[in-house]
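Exercise 7. Given the encoded structure of a 355-residue chain, write a plausible sequence.
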């Protein structure tokens, strides 16, 4: 049976990336060694890191004022590393709370200083993005989650502010052309559109660093990682290599414009199918719907388990909604083919016809 991988992360990777990664485990670049066996300070691996850094910058259209780092600890570590590096005792971390991940960013930042939630959509169970932001005068930065993986909402244009803008882009990085230059720090845990899991992408504008008095341990200090060329200590070598393979794949396929074309086609098909079938409904505000993660429900909740059982039987993987939200979540990252969404929509129609 053909499987369709709608996992929210780690999630589907392009088949050719898997083939190349598997080959490199046996023989990396004709060195006769496995990618798992080479030292991270060898010229072989330094070239991998540098090519990955350059490809990220090329895809993002960013210049030398930004640095690209491949760190560890996941996006969750960035919830604390961002305030640790950027928030001092006189400032306020302004954070938009439009979902569970933004909410976690609020909690972690409050360990380091003052935090103000500057927009919050919990009043409607996070089914929209609250874009009415009131920044406090001494905001050190504004933090947004560009795509709310759990709730299925996505910012489609970004707040214009006169303080550094920080974006948690874990679940929509590289999904479409994006004005990355509007951000001062971007981070993305893996893996969704880039990875394997185990590496965290951080892209930071150098001019925002070095402005606070707090002592920062080297391993958590962005500046130290920049000085070390993102090789401060043993990095997640394999995860970085697979990240490079996914970045090369995005470029080869036609870059972010092509990713947007494919992702929009998949998302339109799915959302239109939901709208066309009374058996399903999507509570997410239309203008805020995510093209990466679609969250929707059965109109009759007693039918949900039967629908999930059918999905399992037909090889539709990972479509059960997040535990706090329930319902159905279909993740449609870059590597997911249109044919998987087509197959899923046929299954929805067939199911709707039986109830
Ligand atoms: C938007 C967002 N932020 C943060 C996280 C947490 O990432 P990690 O598991 O890498 O810490 C996730 C995980 O899915 C996410 O989707």
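Solution.
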């Amino acid at each position: 049976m053909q499987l369709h991988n709608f996992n929210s992360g780690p999630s589907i990777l392009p088949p050719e990336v898997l083939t190349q990664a598997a080959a490199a485990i046996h023989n990396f670049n004709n060195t006769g060694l496995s990618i798992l066996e080479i030292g991270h300070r060898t010229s072989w691996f330094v070239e991998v890191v540098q090519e990955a850094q350059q490809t990220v910058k090329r895809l993002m259209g960013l210049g030398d004022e930004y640095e690209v780092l491949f760190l560890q600890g996941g996006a969750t570590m960035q919830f604390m590393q961002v305030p640790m590096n950027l928030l001092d005792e006189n400032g306020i971390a302004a954070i938009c709370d439009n979902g569970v991940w933004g909410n976690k960013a609020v909690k972690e930042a409050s360990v380091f200083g003052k935090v103000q939630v500057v927009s919050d959509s919990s009043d409607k169970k996070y089914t929209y993005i609250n874009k009415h932001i009131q920044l406090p005068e001494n905001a050190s930065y504004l933090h947004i989650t560009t795509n709310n993986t759990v709730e299925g909402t996505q910012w489609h244009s970004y707040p214009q502010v006169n303080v550094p803008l920080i974006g948690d882009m874990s679940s929509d990085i590289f999904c479409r052309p994006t004005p990355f230059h509007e951000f001062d720090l971007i981070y993305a845990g893996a893996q969704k559109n880039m990875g394997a899991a185990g590496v965290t992408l951080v892209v930071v504008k150098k001019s925002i660093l070095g402005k606070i008095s707090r002592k920062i341990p080297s391993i958590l200090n962005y500046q130290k990682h920049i000085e070390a060329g993102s090789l401060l200590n043993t990095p997640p070598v394999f995860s970085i290599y697979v990240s490079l393979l996914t970045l090369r794949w995005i470029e080869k396929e036609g870059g972010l414009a092509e990713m947007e074309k494919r992702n929009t086609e998949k998302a339109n098909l799915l959302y239109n199918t939901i709208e066309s079938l009374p058996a399903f409904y999507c509570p997410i505000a239309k203008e805020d719907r995510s093209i990466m993660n679609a969250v929707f429900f059965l109109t009759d909740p007693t039918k949900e388990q039967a629908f999930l059982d059918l999905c399992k039987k037909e090889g539709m993987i990972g479509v059960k909604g997040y535990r706090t939200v329930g319902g159905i979540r279909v993740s449609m990252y870059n590597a997911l083919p249109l044919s998987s969404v087509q197959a899923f929509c046929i299954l929805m129609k067939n199911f709707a016809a039986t109830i």
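Remark. The radius of gyration is 21 Å. Students should compare their own answers with the one above.
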